[in-house]
Amino acid sequence: MALHFHNTRGTGLANLYAALQLGVTNFDASVGGIGGCPYAPGATGNIATEEVVAMVEDMGISTGINLSALLDAASFAQLVLAKQLRPTWLRAGPAHSTDLERRHFADQLRAAAADSAAD
User: Which of these, 43, 113, 33, lies nearest to 74 by C-alpha position?
Assistant: First the structure.
């Protein structure tokens, strides 16, 4: 069984967590939470892969996914789409990073946005 959650009301990760507790281990997500549903008016997007990976890794569940590379992919998606994506991980960075790493991460995003705007 695989589950697919939207994050329209900000409960996507909570739903995923509940499903994990019930033994589900296969989930569909999208980089940056990109997506929606033509059959669900107001659906804002899917749960973000980077947020899923960060959450389950913080829970001690190994995914084998390189979170840094995933965040780079999500940042690139923002540039390609020329819009701010919803996942907070793209703005806040890793939970266990130092203040210096968080500032560097934020600086990288600002620089990438500035480069995109200049093009």
Answer: 33
Alpha-carbon separation of residue 76 from 43, 85, 93 (angstroms): 23, 11, 15
Contact assessment for residue 87 and residue 109, using Cβ atoms and an 8 Å cutoff: no
pTM: 0.74
Summarised one tens digit per residue, pLDDT across range 7-22 is 878 889 999 999 999 9
- Inter-residue contact 74 to 50 (CB < 8 Å): yes
Question: Homologous superfamily of 2-118 in CATH?
Answer: Aldolase class I (3.20.20.70)
Amino acid code (one letter) for 38: P
Active site residue 91: no
* Residue of 3, 20, 37, 112 marked active site: 37
